[in-house]
Amino acid sequence: MKHINPIIHMTNDCNLGCKYCYTGSAFYDLSKLDQVNKRFVELLPVLYRLFDQLMEYNENQNTKVTFHGGEPLLITVTNWRKMLDYIKSKNFYITPTIQTNGTLINDDYLKLFKEYNFEIGVSLDGTKELNDITRPLKNGKSSFPIVYKGILQLKEHSLKFGVLVTLNKTNLNEIETLYGFFKERDIPFSIRPIFQTQYIKDDIFQLSPEEYGKAFCKLFDIWFDDENANISLINEFTSLIAQFVNPIEGLVSCNFTMKCSEHFIAFDLNGEVSPCNRFYGAKEFIYGNILDQTLEELLNSPVAKPLSKRWDVLANGECCSCEMQEYCFGGCPADSYSLKGDYFAKDYYCESYKMIFHHVNNRIQAVLKK
């Protein structure tokens, strides 16, 4: 079935100075908020055009739309409502999700999230000591107290949210600390490995596949062996276990989707469409512009069409004899491109995933044999 879930780049501006920023937002001054919002309002008709064509393409089936940045909450609540009211007026069956740094959450946004049933992801790299190494404010000061306050507000309002931790060299050896921090506060979280970008000039944050694999397995064991753990503390782990019971493509992560380019797009407010927000700034991956072509035409463009052949290439090449094919499908092409320079290569973290899948499966089998 044809179905596309878009990731919408609401703005390239951001108020944080994250050391591993992949869009470059951290490395230039924040625009004035009125300028950010003026541009957003001016480009709303382009966004409406996407929504119209997206929901026609998806036959108005439930569609997850992820709002990303930059920092998407730099857009005012008033302007968010303009966009969301349009969706509501058209009776589009859309589930809005947002990935935010959490610094701008206030009562108005909380009300908005509640009213429109948002799913919210907040980026935080652990304790104050860990987080502020990699995710300071633009002026270099601590972002932790502001972000943590926002997380507590989401929790107090019973909103559906989770924290995304970027695992990197600075917090790699603090797995117990990370687990304890989130468990004690009953804050759901997941981890993702750092990835190389054009803005990171050296390897001070980058992990090796072995480092990531060992860290993931260590965290899994801590959670798996914790009799007092909330089963939903790390949803990714419950999904991973379920995957070995009944493999479902993409259940654990979009990384493990056979043909992710057929199910996801990134959309810039200027109308440009590309395969994923991870390819932001990579001109060679732009399918075209929705102002010039229909969404269906863009998805069948000379740039887009070959990307869906990635798994065919890998299944007959690098991955042909891999016993983890049905769980992985070659992993994330963005990791392949950013760390290997080749979209059609297997994921840089391939050996990590083999290690993880074997480890989790062995733990499950050991329990079943008891």
Task: Report a brief summary of the structure.
By secondary structure, the protein is an alpha/beta fold.
Give a verbal description of the structure.
This protein is of the alpha/beta class and 370 residues long. 39% of the residues lie in helices and 12% in strands. It has helices spanning 33-42, 44-57, 77-89, 107-115, 128-134, 144-156, 175-185, 209-224, 235-245, 295-299, 310-315, 325-328, 333-340, 350-368, and strands at 5-9, 63-68, 94-100, 119-123, 160-167, 189-193, 264-268, 272-274, 288-289. A nine-stranded mixed β-sheet has the order 6-5-4-3-2-1-7-8-9, with helices on one face. The mean pLDDT is 93.
Q: Which secondary structure elements does this structure contain, and how are they paired or packed?
A:
Layout: E1 5-9, H1 33-42, H2 44-57, E2 63-68, H3 77-89, E3 94-100, H4 107-115, E4 119-123, H5 128-134, H6 144-156, E5 160-167, H7 175-185, E6 189-193, H8 209-224, H9 235-245, E7 264-268, E8 272-274, E9 288-289, H10 295-299, H11 310-315, H12 325-328, H13 333-340, H14 350-368
Parallel strand pairs: 1-2, 1-7, 2-3, 3-4, 4-5, 5-6
Antiparallel strand pairs: 7-8, 8-9
Helix pairs in contact: 8-14
